[in-house]
Write a structure and sequence with these properties.
Distance between the termini: 95 Å
Strand order of the largest sheet: 3-2-1-4-8-6-9
Number of helices: 25
Number of strands: 19
Largest sheet: 7 strands, mixed
Strand content: 5-15%
Structural class: alpha+beta
Shape: globular
Number of domains: 3
Amino acid sequence: MRVATLQQNQHQETPVVTPSPCREILRDILHRPEMAVWVLLIFGFVWLAYQPITSNAQTILVTSFLGVLLLIMWNMKRVEQAPTALARFFLLLAIALAAFISFRYFSWRINYTISYHDIFSFVGALLLLGAELYALAIYLLGAFVNVWPIHRTPPPLPTDPAKLPTVDIIIPSYNEDPALLELTLLAATQVDYPRERLKVYLCDDGGTVQRRENPKLSKQAWQRHLELKALCERVGAIYVTREKNEHAKAGNINAALKDHCSGDLVLVLDADHIPTVDILRNTVGFFLRDPKLFLVQTPHYFINPDPLERNLRTYELMPSENEMFYNVIQHGLDFWNASFFCGSAALLRRSCLDEIGGIAGDTITEDAETAMTLHGRGYNSVYYGKPMIAGLQPETFSGFIVQRTRWAQGMVQIFLMKNPWTQPKMRITQRLAYTSSVFFWFFPFARIIFFLAPALYLLFSLKIVDAFLPADLLAYALPHVIGAIVLSNILYGHTRWPFISELYETIQSVHALPAIVNVLKSPRAPSFAVTPKGERLEEDFISRLAMPFYVMLIFNVVLLIAGVIRLHVVPEDLGIILLTMALAAVNLIYALAAIGIMLEKSQKRSAYRIPTQWVDIPATLRVGEEQLPVHVVDISHTGARLRAHKGLPLTEAVTLNVAVPAWGGITVTIPSRLVRRHDTTDGKWELGVLFQPETLADKRAIVALVYGDSDLHETNQRQRQQRIGLAEGFAFLMRTAFKHATENFRFLTRIFVRHLRVRAHRLFAPLISKKPAV
């Protein structure tokens, strides 16, 4: 084993002598003529947008620009299928037109709607303007990041195995169920790569010496230690642990790198991220082509819905929330050489990690911090967009908030402690890209201000926006809002439906804001919180985090009532009243949708099903000597749902003969039991089989069948990626909000009635049971 150069202290980095970041930025602009040209064009563009014109000219201008934007949006399928140069022209045109409309709005907004009336009104006006400027910055940074997305093809690998780099697969674990770890280990140990050049490590932080010697944790830690050690021996992996639980996930990985691993490349997988067989075949080649490459990041693909998708029943209807990041934004970041490490499903060059002391650990988002540090040293990254892991999302809203709060705190830590504008050797475009990724996580401040802003006028009569006519709304404010929504739909429409981003931000903001404030007060205070995965919900219940959203609903109802009163009392303020009431009405809809999410739906399945009806998997069900052809509808590691032309008795043991696409179509035999059957309206039969593996080879075949095929993940993901229009998106949001909020209220009513019955029984039962004296 080669001697690891990982330093003892993960926070101590190799000193680097570099010019100051400001000098690097200036050099980048001066030595790249195209960059200087772009800077001049942008300043000229902004100057042109701020020139005064008449109201009629403004109306004609923005109407024509919006018309072009809408035409591009309605023809996005054609644009995406057009030659690359033409497609990029329309994308650049859409960004330019939408940005121009927004600049026109802010020119009017700053010059005509802000003035001093009193200190409270002025502070409120500046807060609202600040929130809008923040939204504009994120909007423009997002457009910049995604102006030129690239999609890569894996380079071929050499046919001689000796020319391939050695790879260590590292699976850090803390408290995950051994059954879940077994799936990941089985998949990792059968990744398509020469056996002699591949090692798989399970890095167990739940069975450390520190935990085994803790009287309160000893029994559980020893049991986990012995169980996982035996599991690794059984499947062909290497079990490692360490002395102490220090620096969370980063410390766990670094301990394995220092004491055990020796590979040229390191594939990091979360404990619940089950890899496909081709994950190394599709990623290793990038490192052979570029000696300065430190990272190949791949998407995180999830086989279960997040709490919003599960509780609103949208998982099979619309794209998942993470798809916008992994299917669009990362491709855009990749163009700017700014795609960053996302903690899992990523291949890293070991020598680069050694150079900075291993995985960074100054913040609780060690992945992005590590990437930015290495980008700051002049190394390159690549994003390959094919989903090659199957993972789990948090099942409950509280688990979701734990995860997102950690991300928000970590990114704010990076902004404060390792700001991209202080990193050496970064190009200005990389700094802008990282700024977009980090600065986004301040959204709770803007979202809360937008929520409270209508109240400042409707309840407290603060003049946060100078009174103006409805015509001003139509000429400036409305085109800005529509242009931003249309551009978002053009850039992300196939992975994020209109108005859904705002819903995700709403449900996170209330709980993430206090955590971010704590980071601003004490940047080093946050600690790493493990995201709960694999939870089973035995019954429906209201989330313990629901109360703020009931308050939000009541608050906005009060605001709308106050707005109606003001329409009668001060009709001369029609413009500002309509604006604030419209904001309150939108906030009300989001509050209703959030309340619908707070009713946690039961989830009793031990394994999530993966749809297979979109692909052809040859299979037969064998009963005795009979072979019954079947179509595989969906599948999990515990069983499958099949369709056949006839039914079978439930008592019979069966054998499923099925081709495994990940193994090139090789047919395997899986011992099973028929547990469910029913006839369908088209004359077919639907059969449910429970897998009953008898050997380790059976388990390997099941894992390869269910999780080994990246084409299946890609096909399932593509099925939900469809665009819808703005009106359709808003109607979907309203329909979903009212429907599921009503479910929530009905559930609360049932609980309240049940509570009243119990109280009445306790109160009157003693009186009823007393017998009259004889």
